[in-house]
Give the backbone structure.
Amino acid sequence: MKKTIIIGAILVQALASAQLTDSIKRLVPVKGALNFRDVGGYKTTNGKEVVWGKVFRSAGIDKLTPEDINLLDKKKIHTIVDFRGVAESKAAPDRLPQNTDYTLSPAGSDSIPNPAQMVKLLKEGGFLEKFYGIDAVKYSGDRFRPLFVKLLTADKKEAVMYHCTGGRDRTGMATALFLYVLQVPQNTIEEDYVASNIYLKKMNKGMMAPLAKMSGLTEAQIENEMALKPELIRSFFEGIKTQYGSVENFLQQEMGIGPKEINILRKKYTK
């Protein structure tokens, strides 16, 4: 068991490290948030590149400093979509530049497990596998529709940013869908996804000990259960395909994103 955990961790780390090679350009240097990064720069299957400086992802932004807010303003990040639940967002309100177009999109987030429920699920095993399963697909249309509306309608001179609390699960699924639409290869989507393990390492470390104490599991076991793995995002896509036949059908039926809208997004966010 221990050997399996170590090997799995090494593989995930290697995949994440491949994405981190351009982290100096990708990671936004804010003091009050983690995992705040540009989604641009990725090559697409048709030889284009996702534009830099137009779409950003992040963990919670409730602790941004005045300097951070000025940086967001400078980067023209004035459209923000928040995937947290109502209680989450009230407990830690976003700090935003003036005149920001803010949208709370909480579908499914108010049913996320509390610490006691999380401990129970961790002890049962397969916690994230369940999170990325049926419920993830069930809520994805309502959760991610506002983001794609903003991506379609945002002024070309402006940037869009979206986030949840850790900027990894809900935000990771949103990013995967966006990059899929832009024809970014699956392996690149997975590299971007698992990179949150590295960018959130400091925050994750602080979570492991309390969860281990509450659950009776070791910190290594908790870390293995909580780590983002390529299989999770693959499972998310497979769940969509199982229910809708294809990702494209899901986008059309649940989000109103058909061939015309996909073409607009590709023209707008790749070059």
